Amino acid sequence: MITQLLDEVQVVQEKEHKLIFVVGAPGSGKSKLLRLLKDREDVAQVNIYKELTRLLMALPRERWAQELTNILADIFESYDEPILALDNIEILFARELRADPLAIFVQFSMDKTLIVGWVGSYENNQLSWAVQGHPEYKTFPADACPGSIIVL
Q1: Could you give all domains of the chain from N- to C-terminal order, each with its CATH number?
Q2: What φ, ψ does residue 92 adopt, rounded to 5°?
């Protein structure tokens, strides 16, 4: 699987949006696969939950949604590495952030290569977050995902 991921990294480098989704159910090995990249000098491991909560806690809750994009920009820019392996992204689906996580990744993938650990599935040309019935369940059409999708 690591070979497929590294091949996809090479492919997306030539695209406008350098974005790869590693999609699978909880426990499917997404985080493990992303950690296999930790020894590469061009890859930074980013725990979105940890980094974002640390910065959001410094703000009043009512400003979280309006500051989210700026905070994420600061997080991503703080890494010199051209490739970011993003894990624990579930916070981006929190209702109080009023965010469109897919649009966020598409936007920032123009500047850096993003490899995103995505809890969900990819079926019938739809990328799903979580499972049907989950409060944060969302679906996105495949054509809204300009990157590559690797399903575990």
Answers
A1: 17-151 (3.40.50)
A2: -65, -15
